[in-house]
């Protein structure tokens, strides 16, 4: 295995970005399968440190599968390609190793642990060192979690469970936050509340990939965007351009 990705940064970053230095996170030509089903068909993307990338595309385009492949979950199976995070190769890792290497995946179903309080859910995330944000800092970001610290996590509202799932990721020392549809199934007023906190998290410079059906909200948060269609990249550029390009939005996002 080479010590560095086989490719050079192909995006239109300005020349001040160290000469062809690999991005903080580089996904290169990944191909992933569910059994025989060929789903992620050669996806490449680069993310620079502190950047937010909106990974968009219609339902079934392969967004969740791409996040799962990056997080090295067993399904889908990665059969080709490389994934690098802060100079570490992730492509041969198991999910627990990718997690130790700094991947923080907040899955669509949030996975709050049953029988544990809000605080215990957060404490559990900090069992292994190195730890990330302190629990007090997480409560500062999400005051509702602080108010409900003694409540069982699974009895929280959908929006609060989403806050807990994000808080739990931040409680670990992560290098890349992967958010899969953080606004899904939430009332507009709660979406706004979570949106506000994501803007606060953004100010902390946490490198993030956000997948969202609410593309406008994701694009307003993001620096850049990658759009997938049938498991392939059809756009890689600035979030602003997607917001301004009606044709592109219409064709691949149906908005
Ligand atoms: N566990 C699975 N087994 C087989 N096919 C799957 C599985 N999960 C997703 N798929 C298929 O992979 C494709 C991409 O799904 P997904 O990555 O969830 O898309 P998105 O998140 O963009 O909506 C879809 O055609 C979906 O039916
Ligand atoms: Mg999905």
What overall form do the CA principal axes indicate?
Answer: globular
Name the bound molecules. adenosine-5'-diphosphate, magnesium ion
Give the low-pLDDT segments: 1-19
Order of helices and strands: EEEHEEHEHHHHEHEHEEHH
List the total number of helices: 10
Strand content: 15-25%
Number of strands: 10
Helix content: 25-40%
How confident is the prediction overall: mean pLDDT?
A: 91
Structural class: alpha/beta
Radius of gyration: 18 Å
How far is the first residue's CA from the last residue's CA? 42 Å
Task: Classify the oligomer.
Answer: single chain
* Spatial ordering of strands, largest sheet: 6-7-8-3-9-10
Most strands sheet: 6 strands, mixed
What does this structure look like?
Helix content is 33%, strand content 25%. With 255 residues, it is α/β, with parallel strands linked by helices. A six-stranded mixed β-sheet has the order 6-7-8-3-9-10, with helices on both faces. A four-stranded antiparallel β-sheet has the order 2-1-4-5, with helices on one face. α3 packs parallel to α6. It binds adenosine-5'-diphosphate and magnesium ion (MG).
